[in-house]
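Tutorial sheet, problem 5. The two components below are modelled jointly, 474 residues in total.
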Amino acid sequence: MNIKEIFKVTINLVLIYAIGGALLAWVYSVSAPIIYKNKQEDKANALKGMMPIHLVANSPEGAVEAIKAVLPEGAEVSLEGNKLDVEVDVYKKDKKKLLKMIKKAGALGVEQYSDFDPGKPKGTWEPSHKHAEYFEVKGRDGEIVGYIVESYHKGYAGSPGIYVAMDKDLVVQKIEILSHGETPGLGDEIEKNWFKDQFRGKKLDQMEVVKGETEDKIQAITGATISTRAITYGVRDAVEHMRKYKAGELSKPDQASEGTEAEEGSSGH
Amino acid sequence: MDTRSNYQIFMDGIIADNTIFKLAISLCPAIAVTSALKNGVMMGVAVMFVQTMVNLTISLMRNFIHPRIRIPIFMLVISAWVTVTDLAMAAFARDVYAEMGLYVQLIVAFASILAHAETFASKNTAIPSVVDGFGMGMGFLFALSCISFFRELLGKGTVWGFEIVSFKPMLLMILPAGGFLTVGVLMAFFNWIGMRFYGGKPAGH
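Model answer (structure tokens):
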């Protein structure tokens, strides 16, 4: 290889890579803003699904007791005329099942349900060096009923993003996968309901991955332990973060608009 | 220049030069994603698209590529197509992206795509190259569909997520070991057909 050829090869490589780079930059500049907007929309939709729901059942005389019987534990019921006002935290996934059971118990129809309001993010934090938000969920009277936290933890390919909904005692109620790049057929099992449902009712100290069947901890997906860990530790970090938030242990509690008021609000529990 | 007709190039891509059953390359994704039929088909479609586009691009630029640096240039073209497809789908086809996004991202370093950029597209004109890419892609799609069909059926008792037979599934089949077994058995089967009925040679010859 003489000097002339080295020169030729170099120019050739640089030129083609420069053209390729320019093309990629152009595609990126066109698509990036749209992708960002899409992601924000997806997140907003996911957030809606994380909220608990209030039900107002239209109940005839005599069916009240039957309806009460099918309601989950902790439901507060008050009767106004023939309207049975059911205050119970149900998450979107349970809603269909519960509605069916209430109707079966004799309700003439569930008149309405109202979503809770997560409002604006209470603040931001940085799980796995990502920018993430957390919310306080307020009920009708403005009391805090739970928290929703966005979280990330390093997985097999990138850091899967999740939303974690927990009640005011920091018991996990629901998780949703926002984004991930785990291997199809193995790691993407984290999107399945059987896996996500495992987190319901679990507390901070139960966030451990176990191989094989378990009731108490989190069961690893066969062939995808790393993906399982990513989600489990993401949830664990989220719960831990809210524990600190509630206990006022966060060094810089809030960058959100409400500042220190948020802390006072949480100390009421 | 390749002297085969376009039809022959296409058919060879599916049968005589089948990526999995004959050439035995790109086996890693063939094992990793074929635990369910849907995954196999999605991966096959994604590869078919990228392989066709890469072949087209390489054949168009083949006279501008210095032979000494052809491999880095092939890598650039493949990764550029993967990135462009990924970004464009995420921005303009969200529904498709939700289904296919994961698979496209896996393609970056695919032996079968690199191999055909090298052995075919860099030596032929645009149309045969597109036919070759499409045929090879179809062959890959066919192979992945076969493998994932049997693995899902035996390993989960379902096809495309719908329950077909109810029995205690063989968990082994959806684990990587089951993937290797399925590929081996299917490879033997197709080779047997080739030798018995068409006088073909087994893989690797």
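Marking note: The two ends of chain B are 22 Å apart (CA to CA). Full credit if you identified this.
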